[in-house]
Amino acid sequence: MAAPRILSGIKPTGRPHLGNYFGMMRPGIEWQDRGDAFYFIADYHAFTTVHQPELLREYSRGVALDFLACGLDPARAVLFRQSDVPEVTELAWLLTCLTPMPMLENCHAYKDHQSKGKVPSHGLFAYPVLMAADILLYDSNIVPVGRDQKQHVEVTRDLAEKANRMFGEIFVVPTPSIVQTTATVIGLDGQKMSKSYGNTIDIFEEEKALRKKVMGIVTDSAAVEDSKDPATSSIVALYRLFAPESDVALMEDQFRAGGIGYGEFKKRLFVAIWETFAPFRQKRAELAADPAILDGILANGAERARAVALPVIERVRRATGLR
Ligand code: TYM
Description:
CATH class of the largest domain: Alpha Beta
Bound molecules: ligand 1
Shape: globular
Oligomer: single chain
Number of domains: 2
Strand content: 5-15%
Protein backbone atom coordinates (compact mmCIF):
# COMPACT_ATOMS: atom_id res chain seq x y z
CA MET A 1 0.00 0.00 0.00
CA ALA A 2 1.20 3.54 -0.76
CA ALA A 3 2.34 5.67 2.19
CA PRO A 4 -0.56 7.70 3.61
CA ARG A 5 -0.77 11.40 2.80
CA ILE A 6 -0.86 13.37 6.04
CA LEU A 7 -1.90 17.02 6.09
CA SER A 8 -2.59 19.68 8.67
CA GLY A 9 -2.53 23.45 9.04
CA ILE A 10 -2.06 26.10 11.67
CA LYS A 11 -3.39 29.64 11.61
CA PRO A 12 -0.82 32.44 11.98
CA THR A 13 -2.95 34.58 14.27
CA GLY A 14 -0.20 34.87 16.88
CA ARG A 15 2.63 32.77 18.25
CA PRO A 16 1.99 29.02 18.57
CA HIS A 17 1.15 27.87 22.09
CA LEU A 18 1.28 24.63 24.05
CA GLY A 19 -2.17 23.62 22.75
CA ASN A 20 -0.95 23.91 19.17
CA TYR A 21 2.24 22.06 20.05
CA PHE A 22 0.71 19.05 21.79
CA GLY A 23 -2.50 18.99 19.77
CA MET A 24 -1.01 19.22 16.29
CA MET A 25 2.67 20.10 15.92
CA ARG A 26 4.18 17.26 17.91
CA PRO A 27 1.84 14.61 16.44
CA GLY A 28 2.53 16.08 13.00
CA ILE A 29 6.26 15.80 13.54
CA GLU A 30 5.81 12.17 14.58
CA TRP A 31 3.76 11.49 11.44
CA GLN A 32 6.50 12.79 9.15
CA ASP A 33 8.31 9.47 9.48
CA ARG A 34 5.21 7.43 8.71
CA GLY A 35 3.96 8.93 5.47
CA ASP A 36 3.95 11.72 3.00
CA ALA A 37 3.43 14.72 5.29
CA PHE A 38 2.23 18.20 4.27
CA TYR A 39 1.93 21.04 6.80
CA PHE A 40 0.93 24.55 5.99
CA ILE A 41 0.65 28.01 7.46
CA ALA A 42 -3.04 28.85 7.05
CA ASP A 43 -2.67 32.53 6.18
CA TYR A 44 -5.97 32.73 4.28
CA HIS A 45 -7.66 31.45 7.42
CA ALA A 46 -5.77 33.96 9.58
CA PHE A 47 -7.10 36.73 7.36
CA THR A 48 -10.52 36.19 8.91
CA THR A 49 -9.12 38.13 11.88
CA VAL A 50 -5.62 39.56 11.16
CA HIS A 51 -5.97 42.61 8.93
CA GLN A 52 -2.57 44.21 9.50
CA PRO A 53 -0.32 43.17 6.58
CA GLU A 54 2.98 43.37 8.49
CA LEU A 55 1.58 41.39 11.38
CA LEU A 56 0.19 38.69 9.10
CA ARG A 57 3.62 38.33 7.44
CA GLU A 58 5.41 38.31 10.78
CA TYR A 59 3.09 35.72 12.33
CA SER A 60 3.30 33.52 9.23
CA ARG A 61 7.08 33.43 9.34
CA GLY A 62 7.05 33.00 13.11
CA VAL A 63 4.78 29.97 12.97
CA ALA A 64 7.00 28.40 10.31
CA LEU A 65 10.12 29.02 12.41
CA ASP A 66 8.49 27.55 15.51
CA PHE A 67 7.41 24.42 13.64
CA LEU A 68 10.87 23.90 12.16
CA ALA A 69 12.58 24.54 15.50
CA CYS A 70 10.35 21.92 17.15
CA GLY A 71 11.48 19.25 14.70
CA LEU A 72 9.60 19.54 11.41
CA ASP A 73 12.16 18.35 8.89
CA PRO A 74 11.70 20.03 5.48
CA ALA A 75 13.61 17.20 3.83
CA ARG A 76 10.87 14.78 4.87
CA ALA A 77 7.73 16.88 5.34
CA VAL A 78 6.51 19.64 3.03
CA LEU A 79 6.11 23.00 4.80
CA PHE A 80 4.29 25.63 2.78
CA ARG A 81 2.18 28.75 2.97
CA GLN A 82 -1.50 28.18 2.15
CA SER A 83 -1.62 31.29 -0.07
CA ASP A 84 1.25 29.98 -2.22
CA VAL A 85 -1.29 27.58 -3.72
CA PRO A 86 -4.20 29.94 -4.46
CA GLU A 87 -6.08 27.19 -6.30
CA VAL A 88 -7.34 26.26 -2.85
CA THR A 89 -9.71 29.21 -3.02
CA GLU A 90 -11.06 27.92 -6.34
CA LEU A 91 -11.79 24.56 -4.77
CA ALA A 92 -13.30 26.30 -1.75
CA TRP A 93 -15.76 28.09 -4.06
CA LEU A 94 -16.80 24.85 -5.74
CA LEU A 95 -17.32 23.19 -2.36
CA THR A 96 -19.20 26.25 -1.10
CA CYS A 97 -21.80 25.62 -3.80
CA LEU A 98 -22.29 22.09 -2.47
CA THR A 99 -22.48 23.12 1.20
CA PRO A 100 -25.92 23.48 2.80
CA MET A 101 -26.07 26.62 4.97
CA PRO A 102 -27.31 24.70 8.05
CA MET A 103 -24.13 22.62 8.00
CA LEU A 104 -22.10 25.79 8.56
CA GLU A 105 -24.62 27.34 10.94
CA ASN A 106 -23.96 24.35 13.12
CA CYS A 107 -20.17 24.84 13.27
CA HIS A 108 -18.81 25.92 16.63
CA ALA A 109 -16.58 28.86 15.62
CA TYR A 110 -19.55 30.56 14.00
CA LYS A 111 -21.87 29.70 16.87
CA ASP A 112 -19.36 31.01 19.47
CA HIS A 113 -19.05 34.24 17.55
CA GLN A 114 -22.79 34.69 17.39
CA SER A 115 -23.32 33.81 21.03
CA LYS A 116 -20.97 36.69 21.94
CA GLY A 117 -23.22 39.04 20.00
CA LYS A 118 -20.55 39.64 17.33
CA VAL A 119 -21.36 39.82 13.62
CA PRO A 120 -19.29 37.17 11.83
CA SER A 121 -17.82 37.93 8.41
CA HIS A 122 -18.76 35.71 5.51
CA GLY A 123 -15.16 34.42 5.67
CA LEU A 124 -15.60 33.25 9.22
CA PHE A 125 -18.89 31.59 8.34
CA ALA A 126 -17.37 29.82 5.32
CA TYR A 127 -14.13 28.96 7.18
CA PRO A 128 -14.84 25.20 7.40
CA VAL A 129 -15.32 25.05 3.62
CA LEU A 130 -11.89 26.55 3.00
CA MET A 131 -10.54 24.00 5.44
CA ALA A 132 -12.24 21.22 3.49
CA ALA A 133 -10.61 22.57 0.34
CA ASP A 134 -7.20 22.49 2.07
CA ILE A 135 -7.64 18.86 2.93
CA LEU A 136 -9.20 17.67 -0.34
CA LEU A 137 -6.80 19.55 -2.63
CA TYR A 138 -3.95 17.34 -1.45
CA ASP A 139 -5.75 13.98 -1.53
CA SER A 140 -5.13 13.75 2.23
CA ASN A 141 -5.77 10.49 4.06
CA ILE A 142 -4.97 11.56 7.62
CA VAL A 143 -5.45 14.93 9.31
CA PRO A 144 -3.71 15.30 12.69
CA VAL A 145 -5.61 17.91 14.75
CA GLY A 146 -6.70 18.82 18.26
CA ARG A 147 -10.26 18.00 19.33
CA ASP A 148 -11.58 21.48 18.43
CA GLN A 149 -10.99 20.76 14.73
CA LYS A 150 -12.75 17.38 14.66
CA GLN A 151 -16.06 18.90 13.58
CA HIS A 152 -14.36 20.60 10.63
CA VAL A 153 -12.82 17.34 9.43
CA GLU A 154 -16.28 15.80 9.66
CA VAL A 155 -17.66 18.59 7.45
CA THR A 156 -14.84 17.79 5.02
CA ARG A 157 -15.78 14.12 4.98
CA ASP A 158 -19.44 14.94 4.34
CA LEU A 159 -18.59 17.29 1.47
CA ALA A 160 -16.14 14.81 -0.09
CA GLU A 161 -18.71 12.01 0.05
CA LYS A 162 -21.40 14.23 -1.42
CA ALA A 163 -19.14 15.38 -4.28
CA ASN A 164 -18.08 11.79 -4.96
CA ARG A 165 -21.74 10.75 -5.25
CA MET A 166 -22.43 13.62 -7.64
CA PHE A 167 -19.32 13.61 -9.84
CA GLY A 168 -17.62 10.22 -9.38
CA GLU A 169 -14.70 9.49 -7.10
CA ILE A 170 -12.95 12.85 -7.28
CA PHE A 171 -11.94 13.17 -3.63
CA VAL A 172 -10.12 11.08 -1.06
CA VAL A 173 -12.23 10.94 2.12
CA PRO A 174 -9.92 11.91 5.04
CA THR A 175 -9.78 10.64 8.60
CA PRO A 176 -8.96 12.88 11.57
CA SER A 177 -6.16 11.74 13.86
CA ILE A 178 -6.51 13.00 17.43
CA VAL A 179 -4.13 12.07 20.24
CA GLN A 180 -6.53 11.44 23.11
CA THR A 181 -4.15 12.46 25.93
CA THR A 182 -3.44 15.86 24.37
CA ALA A 183 -6.68 16.44 22.43
CA THR A 184 -7.58 19.51 24.52
CA VAL A 185 -4.70 21.19 26.34
CA ILE A 186 -6.00 23.50 29.04
CA GLY A 187 -4.84 27.06 29.58
CA LEU A 188 -3.87 29.24 32.55
CA ASP A 189 -7.51 29.59 33.63
CA GLY A 190 -8.51 25.93 33.29
CA GLN A 191 -10.44 26.45 30.02
CA LYS A 192 -9.18 25.14 26.68
CA MET A 193 -5.91 26.90 25.82
CA SER A 194 -6.76 29.35 23.07
CA LYS A 195 -5.48 32.66 21.73
CA SER A 196 -9.00 34.00 21.82
CA TYR A 197 -9.29 33.35 25.58
CA GLY A 198 -5.95 35.04 26.36
CA ASN A 199 -4.92 32.04 28.47
CA THR A 200 -2.00 30.72 26.44
CA ILE A 201 1.59 29.78 27.14
CA ASP A 202 3.59 30.18 23.95
CA ILE A 203 6.14 27.53 23.03
CA PHE A 204 8.94 30.07 22.83
CA GLU A 205 7.94 32.30 25.71
CA GLU A 206 10.78 34.43 27.17
CA GLU A 207 11.99 33.11 30.53
CA LYS A 208 10.60 35.98 32.61
CA ALA A 209 7.26 35.98 30.81
CA LEU A 210 6.98 32.20 31.13
CA ARG A 211 7.67 32.35 34.87
CA LYS A 212 5.07 35.09 35.28
CA LYS A 213 2.44 33.16 33.34
CA VAL A 214 3.04 29.89 35.19
CA MET A 215 2.95 31.66 38.56
CA GLY A 216 -0.36 33.21 37.45
CA ILE A 217 -2.13 29.89 36.85
CA VAL A 218 -5.53 30.07 38.52
CA THR A 219 -5.89 27.88 41.64
CA ASP A 220 -8.36 27.61 44.49
CA SER A 221 -7.56 29.23 47.83
CA ALA A 222 -6.24 26.12 49.65
CA ALA A 223 -3.56 27.00 52.24
CA VAL A 224 -0.06 25.45 52.23
CA GLU A 225 -0.95 22.83 54.84
CA ASP A 226 -4.27 21.85 53.20
CA SER A 227 -4.76 18.70 51.17
CA LYS A 228 -5.33 19.64 47.50
CA ASP A 229 -7.16 17.88 44.69
CA PRO A 230 -4.77 16.94 41.85
CA ALA A 231 -7.66 15.84 39.61
CA THR A 232 -9.00 19.38 39.21
CA SER A 233 -5.68 21.23 39.12
CA SER A 234 -4.45 22.97 35.97
CA ILE A 235 -0.91 22.74 37.36
CA VAL A 236 -1.05 18.95 37.41
CA ALA A 237 -2.78 18.78 34.03
CA LEU A 238 -0.04 20.86 32.41
CA TYR A 239 2.75 19.12 34.31
CA ARG A 240 1.52 15.80 32.92
CA LEU A 241 2.39 17.02 29.42
CA PHE A 242 6.03 17.48 30.34
CA ALA A 243 7.08 15.25 33.22
CA PRO A 244 7.64 11.49 33.38
CA GLU A 245 4.83 9.44 34.95
CA SER A 246 6.77 8.98 38.23
CA ASP A 247 7.21 12.75 38.71
CA VAL A 248 3.52 13.31 38.04
CA ALA A 249 2.60 10.60 40.57
CA LEU A 250 4.86 12.27 43.14
CA MET A 251 3.22 15.66 42.55
CA GLU A 252 -0.23 14.09 42.89
CA ASP A 253 0.75 12.44 46.20
CA GLN A 254 2.17 15.71 47.49
CA PHE A 255 -1.04 17.52 46.50
CA ARG A 256 -3.10 15.10 48.54
CA ALA A 257 -0.74 15.07 51.52
CA GLY A 258 -0.75 18.86 52.03
CA GLY A 259 2.24 20.81 53.33
CA ILE A 260 3.36 22.24 49.99
CA GLY A 261 1.85 25.41 48.50
CA TYR A 262 0.75 25.91 44.90
CA GLY A 263 3.70 28.25 44.35
CA GLU A 264 6.15 25.39 44.82
CA PHE A 265 4.31 23.18 42.34
CA LYS A 266 4.19 26.01 39.84
CA LYS A 267 7.97 26.43 40.07
CA ARG A 268 8.34 22.74 39.27
CA LEU A 269 6.05 23.15 36.26
CA PHE A 270 8.01 26.19 35.08
CA VAL A 271 11.29 24.23 35.10
CA ALA A 272 9.69 21.32 33.23
CA ILE A 273 8.36 23.59 30.47
CA TRP A 274 11.56 25.62 30.18
CA GLU A 275 13.78 22.56 29.96
CA THR A 276 11.58 20.73 27.47
CA PHE A 277 11.87 23.51 24.91
CA ALA A 278 15.51 24.44 25.66
CA PRO A 279 16.99 22.43 22.77
CA PHE A 280 14.48 23.95 20.35
CA ARG A 281 15.30 27.52 21.37
CA GLN A 282 18.85 27.22 20.05
CA LYS A 283 17.60 25.83 16.77
CA ARG A 284 15.02 28.59 16.41
CA ALA A 285 17.63 31.29 16.98
CA GLU A 286 19.85 29.78 14.26
CA LEU A 287 16.98 29.65 11.77
CA ALA A 288 15.80 33.16 12.58
CA ALA A 289 19.30 34.59 12.13
CA ASP A 290 19.23 33.99 8.37
CA PRO A 291 15.86 34.78 6.73
CA ALA A 292 17.07 33.23 3.46
CA ILE A 293 16.88 29.77 5.06
CA LEU A 294 13.16 30.09 5.69
CA ASP A 295 12.57 31.72 2.31
CA GLY A 296 14.20 28.69 0.67
CA ILE A 297 12.22 26.17 2.70
CA LEU A 298 8.90 27.88 1.92
CA ALA A 299 9.71 28.25 -1.77
CA ASN A 300 10.59 24.58 -2.00
CA GLY A 301 7.47 23.69 0.01
CA ALA A 302 5.27 25.73 -2.33
CA GLU A 303 6.69 23.92 -5.33
CA ARG A 304 6.15 20.48 -3.81
CA ALA A 305 2.63 21.40 -2.68
CA ARG A 306 1.69 22.73 -6.12
CA ALA A 307 2.93 19.54 -7.75
CA VAL A 308 0.29 17.62 -5.78
CA ALA A 309 -2.49 20.22 -5.90
CA LEU A 310 -2.54 21.12 -9.59
CA PRO A 311 -3.50 17.68 -10.93
CA VAL A 312 -6.22 17.45 -8.28
CA ILE A 313 -7.82 20.79 -9.15
CA GLU A 314 -7.62 19.85 -12.84
CA ARG A 315 -9.38 16.56 -12.07
CA VAL A 316 -12.11 18.47 -10.22
CA ARG A 317 -12.54 21.06 -12.99
CA ARG A 318 -13.02 18.34 -15.56
CA ALA A 319 -15.40 16.28 -13.44
CA THR A 320 -17.57 19.30 -12.61
CA GLY A 321 -17.85 20.59 -16.18
CA LEU A 322 -15.55 23.58 -15.78
CA ARG A 323 -13.25 22.29 -18.53
P1 TYM B 1 -5.48 26.52 14.85
O1 TYM B 1 -4.47 27.42 14.25
O2 TYM B 1 -6.52 27.11 15.73
O3 TYM B 1 -4.76 25.39 15.67
C1 TYM B 1 -3.75 24.59 15.09
C2 TYM B 1 -3.86 23.19 15.68
O4 TYM B 1 -3.69 23.25 17.09
C3 TYM B 1 -4.75 22.53 17.71
N1 TYM B 1 -5.07 23.16 19.00
C4 TYM B 1 -5.17 22.48 20.15
N2 TYM B 1 -5.00 21.18 20.44
C5 TYM B 1 -5.16 20.80 21.74
N3 TYM B 1 -5.45 21.67 22.73
C6 TYM B 1 -5.63 22.99 22.49
N4 TYM B 1 -5.90 23.84 23.49
C7 TYM B 1 -5.49 23.45 21.15
N5 TYM B 1 -5.59 24.66 20.55
C8 TYM B 1 -5.33 24.46 19.23
C9 TYM B 1 -5.92 22.66 16.76
O5 TYM B 1 -6.87 21.63 16.99
C10 TYM B 1 -5.23 22.55 15.42
O6 TYM B 1 -5.05 21.19 15.05
N6 TYM B 1 -8.66 25.61 11.15
C11 TYM B 1 -7.39 25.21 11.70
C12 TYM B 1 -6.25 25.38 10.72
C13 TYM B 1 -6.48 24.68 9.44
C14 TYM B 1 -6.44 23.28 9.22
C15 TYM B 1 -6.73 23.11 7.85
C16 TYM B 1 -6.14 22.18 10.01
C17 TYM B 1 -6.82 25.28 8.27
N7 TYM B 1 -6.96 24.34 7.33
C18 TYM B 1 -6.77 21.85 7.27
C19 TYM B 1 -6.19 20.90 9.43
C20 TYM B 1 -6.49 20.76 8.08
C21 TYM B 1 -7.13 26.10 12.91
O7 TYM B 1 -7.66 27.15 13.05
O8 TYM B 1 -6.16 25.62 13.72
